[in-house]
Amino acid sequence: MDNKKQCLIITATVVPNSNFVVNTDSEKRRKEYLDVLKYYSSIFLGDIYFAENSGFNFLEDIEFSNLFQKENIYCLSLAPSNEFDKGKGYQEFQVLDEVVAKINKSYDAFIKVSGRYLTTNFNQLIKQENQGLIIDRHQVKKVAITAFFRCRISFYQEHFRSCYKEVNDSKGVFIEHVIYKILKKVDPEKINIFNVTPLYKGVSGSYGGSLNRHRIKTFLINIERKILKLNGENELKNEFK
Predict the structure, then answer these.
(1) Cα 220 to Cα 205: distance, rounded to the nearest angstrom
(2) pLDDT tens digits, residue range 214-237?
(3) Which of 95, 165, 215, 219 gives 20 to 30 Å between its CA and that of 55?
(4) Where are the beta strands (DSSP E) in 126-166?
């Protein structure tokens, strides 16, 4: 898809507003977001929307301000959520609803990445064509991996708008469960998993562990992806723990 027809949305919360976040060091988070924005702006030629929802003052941050001077990078400062006890997935999709409402007439699709996830095989992943949504789903845990996905605007508006209202991390209802459940009711022809496994650098905001994948596990998962594609299936069946 032409980069003029799709954009990249990076969701960010510099100052955490949730009870379910491991890394609460705002200065460390700021540096990680800055590195990620620099990375994506260097490899993606389309428009980039950096959507931040903690009220961080970017006007007083020289490094961020310089990046926002680029003609294809837009900073969207959104109000902090009042539902901090519902978790970061609730807040992230609340942000996505606002961003999609602002950009829906300008693009056919968007790529979404959670802000501190540096996706090392990004360009390979976004070449894959889709009819509605490309997202990894896991059959055993019944989750959809929302850290990175590619979605048509019309698909998001039809299926995901306001879905964040069903999320409540304090009760064990995560956004990954909600999205998985929604997709079970969607035409499978409009949903794909990625042809190759997304590779990340960074640390998870939920559990604090490394996002780096084991080479052998990645190799095995990619074999499974090829088999599933040949069989016309769109959910990963093995966890490869």
Answers:
(1) 26
(2) 788 899 999 999 999 999 999 999
(3) 165
(4) 133-134, 137-138, 143-144, 148-152
